[in-house]
Design a protein that fits this description.
Strand content: 5-15%
Mean pLDDT: 97
CATH superfamily of the largest domain: HAD superfamily/HAD-like
CATH topology of the largest domain: Rossmann fold
CATH class of the largest domain: Alpha Beta
Number of strands: 6
Number of helices: 9
Number of domains: 2
Order of helices and strands: EHHHHHEHEHEHEEH
């Protein structure tokens, strides 16, 4: 069956989650951050994800903005930067303006020109996603921005992937689900979507029940893959 609907994870897939730390570290007077920003960005992202998984399995849901702040607080303390509230607030402010990866606008434009439905399905809170989409100028290419907040649990819970069929009335075979998170691609594969894992860092395949149908180093050739 032909793919009619292309659904993208947001953070790390369309939007560069390391950009907040990288951009701030390049500003004058940010020497302390400049020395550690790659590790801080990695720690921030990993704790953010870990907290979503733990909250999902313990039925302790909270908006993604809360786990984003909690993950940053852990990362800042690990680097000895937790006593700088201005640094914390600056990093959090930049998270609302994360840039899209350079290939994203053209890729989405090609999909729309080919008549495909395009959407985001994200752990992100609706207001966070709105800020990122607006900042990156992606709104013209998206038919919907779906957030886990409507079901109150984080990915990879099946209730989250159900949102796609509910929104578009499509079959699972109609959907290409795209994520840079191996666990998310695996979860969507097990759910029944055709999946693409965007493996930007050359990581090994996760040992999980679902296996992505496709693996690419970036999003540039998604329109050709769908065609």
């Amino acid at each position: 069956m032909a793919i009619t609907t292309c659904v993208f994870d947001a953070y790390g897939t369309l939007f560069d989650v390391a950009a907040a730390a990288r951009v701030l570290a390049a500003q004058p007077g940010r020497d302390a951050l400049g020395k550690v920003w790659p590790q801080l960005a990695d720690d921030w992202r990993m704790k953010q994800l870990q907290y979503t998984w733990l909250r999902a399995i313990t039925n302790a849901h909270t908006p993604f903005w809360d786990v984003t702040k909690d993950g940053l607080d852990w990362a800042l303390e690990r680097q000895g930067l937790h006593q700088d509230p201005e640094l914390r607030e600056s990093l959090l402010a930049l998270y609302w303006e994360l840039p899209a990866y350079k290939e994203v606008p053209f890729m989405l434009a090609k999909l729309k020109a080919a008549g495909k439905t395009c959407a985001i399905l994200s752990n992100g809170s609706p207001d966070m996603l709105e800020g990122a989409v607006d900042s990156a100028g992606l709104e013209p290419y998206l038919d919907a921005v779906l957030s886990v907040e409507s079901v109150g649990i984080f990915k990879p819970a099946s209730k989250v992937y159900d949102l796609v069929e509910r929104q578009f009335g499509c079959a699972r075979d109609d959907v290409l689900f795209v994520s840079s998170n191996g666990w998310d691609a695996a979860g969507a594969s097990a759910y029944g979507f055709t999946t693409l894992w965007v493996n930007r860092t050359g990581d090994p395949m996760d040992r999980l029940p679902g296996t992505p149908a496709h693996v690419l180093p970036d999003l540039a050739t998604v329109p050709e893959l769908v065609a």
